[in-house]
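User: Show me a protein chain along with its predicted structure.
Assistant: Here is one chain, sequence first, then structure tokens.
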Amino acid sequence: MAFSLAQIANHVDGDVIGDSSYMIEKLGTLEHADAQALSFLANPKYQGQLANTQAGAVLIRDKALSQGLKNAVVVSNPYLAFAKLTHLFDNRPKPLANIHPSASIDASASLGKNVKIAANVVIEEGAVLADNVEIGPNSVIGARVEIGENTRIAANVTLYYDVEIGQDCLLHSGCVIGADGFGFAPSSEGWVKIMQLAAVTIGNKVEVGANTTIDRGALENTKVGNGVIIDNQVQIAHNVIIGDNSAIAGCSAIAGSTHIGQRCTISGGVGIIGHLTIVDDVHVTAMSLVSKSIHKAGSYSSGTGLEATDKWRKSAARLRRIDDMAKQIAKLEHKLK
């Protein structure tokens, strides 16, 4: 798999500086790329590596940065260009368009054209797979599940009954879509389970990371909008709604019935309690706890920053005294008046 710089430039709407016939066989970092690799400079922090890189060509934003490079491709956004080029050099093994003999497929299931179904897959009654769907080994597609065109389900994925997955989605290994939401009513004899009577709907061009769980709704569906990207080990509880093109990083947890707007970014380890509303274009920084609704776009944080342990302990001790300090200040203000 090799492409000329002319082909690469055409793919990313760039301009070649140097030999447009130069062949590129792979992508690499500025530090470790060799003469057959194409690299990129997106972060000015790494500009100093241009002088010593062995890359055959580099994606750059400014033509002036090409001095000393073997070749360069000037683009308006090197990181976006790099992202597009990873699809050209995708080395994922491509399965054959067939159905493995060990797969168990209910007679009432509907399979589109060019579907790929790997070993030990189970597809239950009434499931509908559109054209070009790919199901990885050991995955379970529950009753009446619908999967849109060109969606890929990796190995060991479970889609519970009545789940709907849109077109051009990617669900990574171990994710579980449509398990029961955590709904129980207390009684004198213990917890009484609330049956989760709705399902999960996922839009188009959604990516769900490994071992992420999205629970089914109690009375109305849990909903994930178009273009949403969800990292590994994320928990999305019942009746949550996530707006289009939002991003949720690893180990975050969203409690039930919270609504998240469009184009929101939730950093790693964030906890969001239930029954909140978060408007469009909100960014929540890592390890924050969102305990109330957010009604204005912007960046939000909670908690304290990292410090040396001895300094952190002193700060924590002062924080515990803040209520007493506030009362003392109030008394002083009263005396001064």
